[in-house]
Amino acid sequence: AAAAAAATTLASNISNTSITSTGSGNVRRLSRPPYTATETIRIQKGSTGLGFSFAGGVDNNYLPGDAGVYVTKIAPHGSAALEGSLREGDLILEVNGVNFRQIQHAQAVHVLRTATKGVVMVVERKCREVRLVSEKGWYGLGIHGGSDTGAPVVLSRIQSGSPADKHPALDMGCEITHINGEPLAGLTHHEVLNKIKGSPEALLLVVLPRRNSRPKSTGGAVPPPLSPPQQQQQQPSQQQQQQQ
Residue 64 and residue 67: Cα distance in Å, rounded? Predict the structure, then answer.
């Protein structure tokens, strides 16, 4: 399966942000939540298509008053599931250079169905804020990545019974974008570790969930996919959802 693009960009509806650049993309320093992230994903088209369903558009809203196009289902063992980055609830911003922000539903269907070899998608996803209270300075988490490695900072280990293990929003493979309100853009692996060690009582993390996160080593709860607001209240009709 094709690998997901390395670029991950944090964004927010907060203005007056300062921007720094790292190997994993441009990250905005945010004054307060909500936090969202955009990710570029490459999916090859298989014999059964791209392996996901979507709904929405300016003329066929998935959510009331929202013209966005959302991923509604990922087929098990399909191309999207095998690639691993796409999540149910992701907002599709762009496909193969075509802007999906104000697109009609039929046009979105056409763009995805006529992509003979595959797609390069830009999607937006909500990040989570996670507060961990230590147990005598112990959080029970391990990380890898950093600006000196050319990779984002992700959770690589969660110890059994630890505060990290007990938090339902954390699982291995989640990307950590902020610690105590400060972005990790440009920080080396050692500098990120020092930030964690420098907060012996509590940590406030912003994490980007990933669909291909591995389960916790201790069987801790894995959070469900993030969904757009009101998604549970407003389910599209069968005609509104398109499988690709």
Answer: 8
Find the angle CA(82)-CA(48)-CA(238) to the nearest 5 degrees. 100
pLDDT band of residue 243 (cuts 50, 70, 90) is low
**Of the candidates 8, 37, 43, 44, which has an alpha carbon nearest to the alpha carbon of residue 25?**
8
Separation in Å, CA 59 to CA 68, 79, 211: 10, 28, 29
Question: 3-class SS at 110?
Answer: helix
Q: What is the pLDDT, as a whole number, of residue 79?
A: 95
Q: Kindly list the distances between the CA atom of residue 19 and the CA atoms of 5, 59, 110, 136, in Å, as whole numbers in the listed order.
A: 20, 35, 36, 35
- Give 29-75 pLDDT, tens digit per residue: 344 557 888 889 999 999 889 999 999 999 999 999 999 999 999 99
- Give tens-digit pLDDT for 161-216: 999 999 998 988 889 999 999 999 999 999 999 999 999 999 999 998 875 444 44
Q: For residues 8 and 3, what is the distance between their CA atoms, to the nearest angstrom?
A: 14
pLDDT for 148 beyond 60: yes
Q: Look up residue 90 and give its DSSP letter.
A: P
Q: How far is CA 177 from CA 30, 90, 98, 132, 224, in A?
A: 11, 18, 28, 15, 20
Instruction: Calculate the dihedral angle through the C-alpha atoms of 3, 24, 179, 197, rounding to the nearest 10 degrees.
Output: 90
- What single letter denotes the amino acid at residue 199? S
Q: Distance between CA atoms of 158 and 139, rounded to whole angstroms?
A: 9
* Environment class of 21 (CB within 10 Å of its CB; exposed 0-12, middle 13-18, buried 19+): exposed
